[in-house]
Amino acid sequence: MKLLNRREKEREMRAAGRLPDGQSLTEKFPVLTYGPTPTFDPATWDLRVFGEVEEERRWTWEEFLRLPRDTITVDIHCVTRWSKFDTTWEGVMFRDFARELKLKPTARYVIAHCEFGYTTNLPLDVMLDDDVMLACKYEGHWLKAREWMDHGGPLRTVVPKRYFWKSAKFLRALEFSAEDKPGFWERGGYHNDGDFWKQQRFQRRGIF
Ligand SMILES: Nc1nc2c(c(=O)[nH]1)N[C@H]1C(S)=C(S)[C@@H](COP(=O)(O)O)O[C@H]1N2
Ligand SMILES: [Mo]
Predict the structure, then answer these.
(1) In order of start, what are the domains of the chain with their CATH numbers?
(2) Distance 168 CA to ligand 1 centre (A)
(3) pTM higher than 0.90 for the full model?
């Protein structure tokens, strides 16, 4: 078996139509966090759902772990131009999670709220795609483990069809909203939609 080097793998991915323009393949897993990494305490952690739902709800860590989980293998693309292929995540599919809720017909956007105030926004129909996950494991490792916490422990969203800033680490709440509410980087000038096939990187001058 021939081991491909990084450039050869990159060429393969480009030929296979899996490398969006302006991206290059990485074999590392860079950590990109604005601000600190939180600590995780399973006794106090919760995941809240609020906004345009018939009933606001809250899951403790123990309760969240009782939800049925799946595994996905997807490519991720960061707006800082790295792409990582065939990453495997385990967690609760957002679609299945949404079925646990009674969404009001006015719910059109999902705002992910994270530790320390990071937020990111997407339309509900984008979030309801069949590959969107609330992920608690990466390559079999619990994100809550000390060595993996930087990647969004204990829980993050994974939205494979958008630039990776739309995949919210350290998730604590999902807000269903009638109006769009641009998140942290979106207010800072990043594109509101973030589709990497369209190179939707920046949209306007940010407020930073
Ligand atoms: N809460 C939170 N989520 C976040 C970020 C962040 O700073 N805080 N950074 C985003 C960006 S810009 C990217 S590219 C990915 C990086 O995820 P990684 O550190 O696991 O590579 O997380 C996204 N989610
Ligand atoms: Mo990013």
Answers:
(1) 21-198 (3.90.420.10)
(2) 6
(3) yes
